[in-house]
What we know:
globular, Dna Topoisomerase Vi A Subunit, Chain: A, domain 2, 12% strand, six-stranded mixed sheet, binds zinc ion, five-stranded antiparallel sheet, single chain, 17 strands, DNA primase DNAg catalytic core, N-terminal domain, 55% helix, DNA Primase, Chain A, alpha+beta
Amino acid sequence: MLYPRELIEEIRFQNDIVDVISQYVPLKQKGNSYFGICPFHHEKTPSFSVNSEKQFYYCFGCGAAGNVYGFLMQMEHCNFVDAVQKLADRANISLPEPELTPKAQEMERLKQRLFEMHKTAGRFYYDMLHSAKGEEALAYLGKREIQPNIQRKFGLGYAPEGRRVLYEHLSEQGFTSDEMVKSGLVMENKDGRGYHDRFYNRLMFPIFDVQGRVIGFGGRILGKGEPKYLNSPETILFNKSRNLYGLHLARKTRNKELILVEGYMDMISLYQAGFHNVAAALGTAFNQDHAAVLKKYVESVILLYDSDEAGTRAALRAIPILVKNGLAVRVIQVPDGKDPDEYIRHKGAQEFSKLLVNAEHYISFEVKCLQKNYNLENPQHKVEFTTEAAKILAGLDNAIEQDVYLAQVATMTNIEETAIRNEMEKMKTKQEEAFSKEAQRKRIQNYTEQSAAQFYHSKGIMEAQRSILSLWIAHKWIYDKMKHLLLPEDFLDPAYQKAAMLIGKWYQNEEAIVPADLMSYFEILEEQQKITAIFATKEEVENKYDMEKIINEGFRLIKHAGLERKKQTVHSIEELQILNIEQRKLTQLYITILDG
Length: 596
Ligand SMILES: [Zn+2]
């Protein structure tokens, strides 16, 4: 814990959740609750609720939930400490220096130094670009028609000739060689003596994180030479798979659609032309982590890659990754083999808008790419093409989309739709068989660990844990009746274990349990969501008969599942017998609360 608990409670208390959320989402009052359109999933009718009495939010549509800290974490994509700092600011509460472990302190200090260094380096490169040394680089930008205001916005710069220019500048600014090497901007000489700059004679593009801080650089060579583009290596600031160039600007548009391009220049020239919802994956092929990052901000992606062979191949690789992550995907191929940057420069923004509107569904793009490998005049080719196309179509979940593209393939090949559909059905069966075989293989492989863990997190068991915790929080006397029968470690979910432990501690100290303060103990969003669900999904039970029923059913389910879990790891028959006996005893145990 970074800050004292009381302070975290005070800051929470000073930031009414309805006020804070209202700054992002218009809310309408209904009794004790407020409703609005959920900012975390796409919807037309409000299912996002804010409970002003208990100070938490809960979305009935997507399950997003938490207290005011959770909301900020989810909305601003920040961590718990950032959320505390933001809300402290908002309430004009000053924070003490955070309490970090020495190792974490050292890490934090290094990070701050590297942020500082990247800022210094960025300024240095910028100044170089506008000095006599930068003439050629500046002329290049002029030729590419990048306007001065855009150059500034993106902090473009120039790394001059000479192998120690930046090194010397950073030394003068008080950075150590060790820090410089850790930033990746400077490298140790091969013979181990002395240092040199990573970038020289390159046009420099600062790479920003989503919060707009410089975390690395990309450098484009001027004139001839290899490689054409060189990027900073991965460092404690820069993770290539989690950063997309330009995302810090794109996310500000709050547009749910993003144009994904291949490089710096495409990104910048689209931005300059007024398309601000654009980003590029850099220095590494588009991968799963990129898609997961995008999914946080957008619902659909328009792929705008070069229309040459390499670009097409890259697009075909990115499509399944995006689709698998639940993003809608469309594709634009710039006509005449031009790259997007060239196209915009020659044709202008308005023509480019037309391309955007006409972006095609990824399936149609895949089929078209496939067709290039075949000559449809040749009967054998025609059969092969149709079979492959059927395979692609069979992968579509949406029946309407399937129909549309089926018709397209039928027109292309002059083959009856029904014939293709038959082929698709066969494919589907094959795919399903392969899938279930694979699933079975995995099931066997992971049985002990994985699937068992899933079982203990099944809906019923999660619900049972929530019901009991909810009753404990509402009624200390129920907790007192059960505390020796159901210990914190009996709870199967780690978050609920911790909640049970905290409840016990507070009751022992005769402290009141405030739901929203309990939530603050869970600094990871998923955990806070689980805790909030204790309060959000339950009607309060008043009737003691109902309570007794909930308690006994839940208690038995939790204990039983716990014993089952223990059975997975026994080492002897004797241990197993003991567990079996315990399980049998459990069926005879009944907790009565009606006299209490
Ligand atoms: Zn929602």
